[in-house]
Every structure is written in structure tokens, then in C-alpha cells.
Write a structure and sequence with these properties.
Shape of chain B: globular
EC number (chain A): 1.2.4.1
Oligomer: heterodimer
Catalytic activity (chain A): N(6)-[(R)-lipoyl]-L-lysyl-[protein] + pyruvate + H(+) = N(6)-[(R)-S(8)-acetyldihydrolipoyl]-L-lysyl-[protein] + CO2
Distance between the termini of chain A: 41 Å
Structural class of chain A: alpha/beta
Largest interface: A-B, 65 and 60 residues
Strand order of the largest sheet of chain A: 3-2-4-5-7-6-12
Order of helices and strands of chain B: HHHEEHHEHHHEHEEEHEHEHHHH
Largest sheet of chain B: 5 strands, parallel
Helix content of chain B: 40-55%
Distance between the termini of chain B: 84 Å
Strand content of chain A: 15-25%
Keywords (chain A): Oxidoreductase, Pyruvate, Thiamine pyrophosphate
Strand order of the largest sheet of chain B: 3-4-5-9-8
Protein name (chain A): pyruvate dehydrogenase (acetyl-transferring)
Cofactor (chain A): thiamine diphosphate
Structural class of chain B: alpha/beta
Chain lengths: 414, 467
């Protein structure tokens, strides 16, 4: 069932993971089967040799007998809307923060070791209501209100994980997790390695980040830039209710420490998600809009700016391919690579600052791996290297706007 | 302002007063949260069985309003009742006398009259002493090995053997240990062999840690000893988390964490103590106050009366113990453990001792302290000699057994060193494994690149790391 292709020399095989293979005949997994090996140097990120060697979650699904698993959105539809393709017609509508809550609640029901800790997560329900109702249902030992010390409760979560719990640590705002950097970098990321594999740290660290509406410089940070270098952690960013729930569940089930980036302005997005249980693959990117002319790589809130720009671009006669990379560490170079090979032009749209952001790393990765396929230099649109101003109009201009995306695409596609 | 009283009960009165005076209590349960803290006898009558925050108003309110005497007025600020005083008084920064230190054996190893201590059986006492001797010999041999260039680095525990071994002896094997880096004695007590210590120090393929950490950064999942992380005091919040986990699972065990006087300055110390108190976590915080943080004496580290007084600031029961008195250490830890588990509370233990050795092999402490001082502590306050006097006077030890033990351990230690030195290092694959549960593609690619480089430049690659 899996399409296994052997690359030459250093190339690796591209195969559908067993988790994808359930419905692979129904879904058009675009480009995967049309891989042609042009260069010895290309790197393929994906599962190897048919056996799933990628991170915990997908192999977990393959082994257990789950109810109908709906694979993530590897859509072939040319729909303009930023929706994930869910084959199921039935479903229920909810907002993104409710989707996160639903995912969290389902995992807490499923596994008594899952617990939540953070500031105001208990009876208050969390500052963005992601943990609403959970303290009443599971008790305030499993949904723990902590005093204000991010380093301490992150450290607590790590210690609890080492003794068998699966904590979901909430940072009230991602920016506050800068205080927890020591624990995240030295203990969370490294202890599995330095202990020789004796101790696993299956924590999920989550919280809202990104530029909001006039929250001020300290509350508008993009922590993914700072955390991306830490060895041993995984980073994912959710952008729709569908992938929010799926990624939350996958992150909790993963044996690795996962940092789940949410965005302050996306919590009230509404979407209909399946009633059946599903999870999303932590290492896969999401095809939002397939296209032929240019690859637009983005994540989190910028996905929506990219899609808005896409509408304008379509009217102007362009056919952009928009990919929500979702997995910030490691990058899904398989999906990205296939896209680059098709379109030969890349535009990265991110909210991180110019220096040292996700876009900077992604640019380097694409140049390194897919240089032969590019017809134009990789372009990256990011925020300026300034603290986010409070003034609304200025703040708007620190964030990449659809108009800029349109201009950039026109420039690249000349 | 008009107070509309809904009923004549004092409870309603009070709620109304709160509401209309806008004292910040929106609901009864909100108020209850602030009122519950100070009184340790507060009965918890819970309406919702899973909720810890219950309405205690019914119990406490009956006493409110009874004190009509203006001089004895109290106010319910968030946190509980506070009496007022018209005199301006500052709490002194230090008490006239320092907190006394619990000890059972005097300087000469004689039992102090009327001392309270937990009785120790002959078997346990002999094992304790033997392990202290073993630790001392191990330290000396490893230290010398580093000086000879056979080991890259080492940090001794000289002078703190009693803290290590006696505390370990008082714990159960299920208690989870979060060490700083000067507590190998706890591992030794639990059965870590000299060979295993040597393997970790040499980073060979038999090491639990697969050769990834520097020497003395031991870890053993099997023995419930969390791998040493070099960062100071980060293990304290980890321990609180583990204690929380043990409490959730209702295990008959506690978390135990060690740190030094220097470590208590880190933010994590304060946060962890605060958290432990609020979470009511069964954790023992054992501070080895050995007088020095590398070259920083305690007078430059903090200005409080040591560590023991800090416990009260966080609402934690604390005790100061003579860390060089093995019996006192044993009793204190044993008692503290029982309290921590049965009462679900953290305990702070300050063990006063002295760091006889250098901070590590990268340090020469004679540069900042007098050699006389070191010598005095090594001779006059030696924890081994004090305990030895006691076990000998109990008829459990003799000179002959001493020399037997020492020669046996020395031989075993040298053999372990020799074997560890000769054992192969872990192979290159271990550089990339365990970063994640399964190596992702980027790491596999990076490993491929390293191997490619090695193939083209084999003479530049270390000869003792197998491929």
C-alpha cells in the first residue's frame, strides 16, 4: 500500500506512513507518488521504508486499533477556503479554543496520567478558556493552578513527567515562557539524551503567542524563534480548529516534549470538525491550497493572510500553492520539497522577526536541499526587528499584510 | 450605606457586608479561598468532593463580629484574619539567637545525654559506616585518577559523607531522588556498584548514560535517582513535580532533593519551596550548607540565618541538623519523611557541614580559604570518625574490620577503574540517538554526513570511539 521509492546514494525513501495509508487510495496524496530523483542531495522528510520511524504519534495509531482514523488534511481539493479536507460529512461546529479544550478533555478522559498545570487554568478556566470546565470535571489536582513562576511550574511538569505523568503545561502567554527557558532547554530537551534514554519527558508546553491586538511589546512575542535551536524538543503550530484539536492530541500522546504554539487572534475561529476521533501527524505540513506557480510557506495566523492574498492573486491570474507548514521543528521537507519541485518558486510568510526566525531557518533548509529546483531566490516576508509597538496602526505594519504578499508573488513570478 | 440583609444569620450578614463593601470577594467560594490558609486546624468540609476549595464560611463566620472591643479588632484581609497594632514595629531582620542545630553525637562521637534519635540496627549502622568509608575511598581514588590524567573531571564529596549516606539510609527505595551533584552516596547506598560509578566517569559503553554526560553526572532509573543536570537548583521544581505525581498516585513515597547553600540563591529554590507548600507536595528539601559555593562563602551568599529560617517564609516546616552527625541526619530525615508523606507537606532540612574537598578538580580552594581551616574540619569534625566511635562503642565495629574494609574497597575500586578505562566507548550512533524517541530524518542525515566526513578523513577521527 505504501509507495516506496528508493533514492540514489544519500537519498532516502519516501513512503506513506501506515497512518496515512489507511485512506491513501481515497485521498489523492498529491505529488508523493510522482517523486523523481534528480539529485543525490535531496533530503526527504517522511517515514522510511514503510515502517514508521517518525515520531511516536503516527506509529501509535498504526499499532493500536482505533476507531475510524481520519487522516490529516492532505487535500487535493482546489478549495479557496482555508479548510481541512475532512471526508466525514457529519461534524460539529466549534471555535478554535473549544477545539483545543475538546482535544485536551478527550486525552484526559482517555489517559488518567494526563494533567494540566499553569496559571489560572483551574476554576478560572484559563485566560483563553482552553481549560474551561476541566477543573470541575477532573478535580484541581489534575488541573493545577500554580503560583506565578514559569520556570518552577515548567520544572514541576518535567519532574512529574519523569515519574509517569503526562503534563500539559500552559504558559499564559508564550512570552512568559522565556522565564522557563532554562528548564525547557536544559532539562526538558536534554534529559532524555543525557540520562542515556532512561527518563522520558512526555510534556506538552503550550500557550498563545504572536502579535495580537495592541497587547504591547512584551505580550506579542514569537517564541518559536528562540526555541527552535533546542535539541530534543518538537515544535508545532496550530491554525485551525481541526488541526488544533488534532495536534493537541498528538502532542499529548507523543513521548517527546512538544511545544504547541497557538495564536492569540485565532482562538475564535469557527469551523466544523469531525465527530469521530482523529489526530494530526506532528511532523506533517498541511496543504491548504494546491497550485502550480509558486509555493507559499506559512504557519499560524499568517496562513489566513496568505489565503487572503491568494484570492487576490487568483483574480490576477496566478495559481499559488499555499502550505501551512505546521511542524516548525522538524520541518516537513517532504511536502515542502515536493512543492518546490513543482513550482520552483518559494515565498515564506511568517510573523517571526527577520533575524533568526523560523523563516530564516526554513530559507536555509530549502536552499540547502532544493537549490537545484529553484528558479528564483527564496523570498521571506517577516516582521521587522522591532519590539511590537502598542499603537494599532503601527502594530499592523509590523505584521506581514496580504498586500505585501501579493506584491512579493508578483515580483517572484515575473 | 444601607445594608440589605437577606436573613438574620451571621453568615448572610457577613456575605452582604463583603458584597456591599466591595472587599473583593465576588463569591463565597472566592472568599473561602482567601480565608482558608492560616489556620492549620481548618476543617475542610467540601461540598464538591473533588474540589479543594470549599466553603469554610459556615465554620468561621460564627466567630466574626463577636469581638466588639476596638483594641482586639481583626480584619479579614485576603489570606486570613490579621490583628492590628497601634505601635509601629518592624520585625527584626534576624533573631537574637540563631536557630539551634540538632545533633546526637558530640564532637568525639559520644552519644549526648537525653538525646532523641531514631534507633538504628547494627546491620544498618554497619552498612552506613561501610558505605561512608567506601564513598571516601572512591572519592580519593577518582580524584587521584583525574590528577594523573586518567579521568577528565571529578568532584568529591569529602566531608559530606554522613549527609549522603545517612539520609539515603533513612529513605525507602521508592523515594525519588533529585540530586545536585554532590550526592553519589545516595546511589551507593541503593546499590550502584563501584564499577558503575567508574563506567559513568569514563563514559564507556557500559554507562547508563551512554557516555553523554561529564563525570559525576550519574543517573539511574532503576534506583530512582534522577540523572544529574549540571544547572544549579533546576532539580528543585522537578522534585516538586515528582512529589505531586506521587501524591496523585497516592504512593507511599516522597520526592527528595538535595542542593547546596549556593543553590538556595537561585530563583528555582524560592519558587520550588513556594510551590511545594501551596501544592502540599510530599517533598524533602535537603540543603547541604557546606559553607562554600566554589569560592563564595555563605556570608556573600545570603544574609539570613542560614537556610532553616527560610522555610517559614514559605510556610514550610524546617529543621537544622548537624550534617556531620550520621545519627542525627538519619533521625531527621526519617522523621521528616514520615511527616512529608502522612501529612502531605514539604519539609526543609538544613544540614550544616563543610566542603573539605575543592569544588571540583578544576578548583584549588586554598586560593580562597586557609589550608588550616580545611585541615581542621577534616580532622576535628570528620563525620566518619564520629560515627565510627559510636559503632565501636556499641560493639559493632573493630580496627580489624576497618582495615579489612579499607583494603578490600581500595582493591575493588582500583580494579573498577582499570576495567572502566579499558572498556570501549559507546559508538558514534549514540551521538544521535535518544535526542528524540526515534531519530528524525534531519538527525539521520546529519549522522550520515558525519560518517561521510570520517570516511574521507579517518586520521582526524578519535581512535577510541567505535563507528
Amino acid at each position: 500500500m505504501s509507495a516506496i521509492l528508493q533514492g540514489a546514494g544519500a537519498g532516502a525513501a519516501a513512503a506513506l506512513s501506515p497512518f496515512n495509508s489507511i485512506d491513501s487510495n481515497k485521498l489523492v496524496a498529491h505529488s508523493r507518488s510522482s517523486l523523481s530523483v534528480r539529485s543525490k542531495r535531496y533530503i526527504v522528510a517522511g517515514s522510511d521504508e514503510g515502517t514508521n520511524k517518525s515520531f511516536g504519534s503516527s506509529s501509535l495509531i498504526a499499532r493500536r486499533s482505533q476507531p475510524l482514523m481520519i487522516p490529516n488534511a492532505v487535500a487535493a481539493t482546489k478549495a479557496d477556503t482555508a479548510s481541512s479536507s475532512t471526508p466525514s460529512k457529519s461534524g460539529h461546529e466549534l471555535l478554535l479554543f473549544e477545539a483545543l479544550q475538546e482535544g485536551l478533555e478527550e486525552e484526559m478522559d482517555r489517559d488518567p496520567h494526563v494533567c494540566v498545570m499553569g496559571e489560572d487554568v483551574g476554576h478560572y478556566g484559563g485566560s483563553y478558556k482552553v481549560t474551561k470546565g476541566l477543573a470541575d470535571k477532573f478535580g484541581d489536582l489534575r488541573v493545577l493552578d500554580t503560583p506565578i513562576c514559569e520556570n518552577a511550574f515548567t520544572g514541576m511538569g518535567i519532574g512529574a513527567a519523569m515519574t509517569g505523568l503526562r503534563p500539559v503545561i500552559e504558559g499564559m502567554n508564550m512570552g512568559f515562557l522565556l522565564l522557563a527557558f532554562n528548564q525547557i532547554s536544559n532539562n526538558c530537551g536534554m534529559l532524555h539524551y543525557t540520562s542515556g534514554g532512561q527518563f522520558t519527558i512526555p510534556v506538552v508546553i503550550r500557550g498563545p503567542g504572536g502579535v495580537g491586538r495592541q497587547l504591547g511589546a512584551e505580550h506579542s512575542q514569537r517564541l518559536e524563534s528562540y526555541f527552535q535551536s533546542i535539541p530534543g524538543i518538537q515544535m508545532v503550530a496550530c491554525s485551525t480548529p481541526y488541526n488544533a484539536k488534532g495536534l493537541m492530541k498528538a502532542a499529548i500522546r507523543s513521548e517527546n516534549p512538544v511545544i504547541l504554539f497557538e495564536h492569540v487572534l485565532l482562538y475564535n475561529l469557527k469551523e466544523s470538525i469531525p465527530d469521530e476521533e482523529y489526530i494530526c501527524n506532528l511532523e506533517e505540513a498541511e496543504m491548504v491550497r494546491p497550485g502550480e506557480h509558486i509555493t507559499i510557506l506559512t504557519y499560524s495566523r499568517m496562513r489566513y493572510h496568505a489565503m487572503q492574498a491568494a484570492k487576490t492573486l487568483v483574480n490576477k491570474g496566478y495559481d499559488p500553492e499555499v502550505i501551512d507548514i505546521r511542524s516548525l521543528k522538524p520541518f516537513d521537507l517532504h511536502t515542502i520539497g515536493n512543492s518546490v519541485k513543482k513550482t520552483h518558486r518559494v515565498l515564506i510568510v511568517e510573523e517571526c522577526m527577520r533575524t533568526g526566525g523560523i523563516g530564516a531557518s526554513l530559507t536555509a533548509a530549502i536552499n540547502e536541499n532544493f537549490h537545484d529546483y529553484l528558479d528564483a531566490p527564496v523570498m521571506c516576508l517577516s516582521s521587522q526587528d522591532v519590539p511590537t509597538p502598542y499603537a494599532g496602526t503601527l502594530e499592523e505594519w509590523t505584521v506581514v499584510q496580504p498586500a505585501q504578499i501579493v506584491t512579493a508573488v508578483e515580483q517572484l513570478c515575473q | 450605606m444601607a445594608l440589605r440583609l437577606r436573613s438574620s444569620t451571621s453568615k448572610s450578614n457577613f456575605l452582604n457586608i463583603l458584597r456591599y463593601n466591595n472587599l473583593g470577594f465576588g463569591t463565597a467560594s472566592h472568599a473561602a479561598r482567601h480565608l482558608r490558609t492560616h489556620d492549620p486546624t481548618l476543617l475542610r468540609v467540601s461540598q464538591n468532593p473533588i474540589s479543594r476549595f470549599c466553603n469554610t464560611m459556615a465554620e468561621k463566620l460564627s466567630s466574626v463580629g463577636e469581638n466588639e472591643d476596638a483594641n482586639a479588632q481583626v480584619m479579614d484581609f485576603p489570606g486570613g484574619k490579621v490583628a492590628f497594632t497601634p505601635e509601629i514595629q518592624f520585625i527584626s531582620e534576624s533573631s537574637k539567637e540563631r536557630v539551634p542545630c540538632y545533633r546526637v553525637l558530640d564532637d568525639n562521637g559520644q552519644l549526648i545525654t537525653n538525646s532523641h534519635f531514631v534507633q538504628v540496627s547494627e546491620e544498618v549502622a554497619v552498612k552506613m559506616y561501610s558505605d561512608m568509608v567506601t564513598l571516601q575511598i572512591m572519592d580519593n581514588i577518582f580524584y587521584e585518577a583525574q590528577r594523573q590524567g586518567r579521568l577528565s573531571f571529578y568532584a568529591t564529596t569529602i566531608g559530606e559523607e554522613a549527609i549522603n549516606i545517612a539520609s539515603a539510609a533513612a529513605l525507602s527505595p521508592q523515594d525519588v531522588i533529585f540530586p545536585q551533584y554532590r550526592e553519589p552516596g545516595v546511589l551507593l547506598w541503593r546499590g550502584f556498584t563501584l564499577q558503575e560509578f567508574a563506567n559513568q566517569c569514563f563514559g564507556n559503553k557500559s554507562d547508563n548514560g551512554k557516555g553523554r554526560q561529564m563525570p559525576v553526572h550519574y543517573g539511574s532509573n532503576k534506583l530512582n535517582y534522577f540523572t544529574v543536570s549540571a544547572t544549579i537548583a533546576t532539580q528543585l521544581p522537578n522534585a516538586v513535580g515528582a512529589a505531586y505525581s506521587l501524591k496523585m498516585d497516592k504512593k507511599d513515597a516522597c520526592a527528595v532533593t538535595y542542593f547546596g547553600d549556593g543553590g538556595s540563591s537561585e530563583g528555582d529554590f524560592h519558587a520550588a519551596l513556594n510551590f511545594a507548600a501551596v501544592m502540599e507536595a510530599p517533598v524533602l528539601f535537603i540543603c547541604r550548607n557546606n559553607g562554600w559555593a566554589i569560592s563564595t562563602p555563605t556570608s556573600d551568599q545570603f544574609r539570613s540565618d542560614g537556610l532553616v529560617v527560610k522555610g517559614r517564609a514559605y510556610g514550610i516546616r524546617s529543621i537544622r541538623v548537624d550534617g556531620n552527625d550520621a545519627l542525627a541526619m538519619y533521625s531527621a530525615v526519617h522523621t521528616a519523611r514520615e511527616m512529608a508523606i502522612s501529612e502531605e507537606r514539604p519539609i526543609l532540612i538544613e544540614a550544616l557541614t563543610y566542603r573539605v574537598g575543592h569544588h571540583s578538580t578544576s578548583d584549588d580552594s586554598t586560593r580562597y580559604r586557609s589550608a588550616d581551616e580545611i585541615e581542621w574540619w577534616n580532622k576535628a569534625r570528620n563525620p566518619l570518625s564520629r560515627f565510627r566511635t559510636w559503632i565501636e562503642s556499641s560493639g559493632w565495629w573493630s580496627d580489624e574490620e576497618e582495615s579489612d574494609l579499607r583494603s578490600r574497597v581500595k582493591k575493588e575500586m582500583l580494579e573498577a577503574l582499570r576495567v572502566a578505562e579499558k572498556t570501549e566507548k559507546p559508538n558514534l550512533e549514540n551521538m544521535f540517538s535518544d535526542v528524540y524517541d526515534v531519530p528524525p530524518l534531519n538527525l539521520r542525515e546529519q549522522e550520515r554526513q558525519v560518517r561521510q566526513t570520517i570516511k574521507s578523513h579517518p586520521q582526524d577521527y578519535p581512535s577510541d570511539v567505535p563507528l
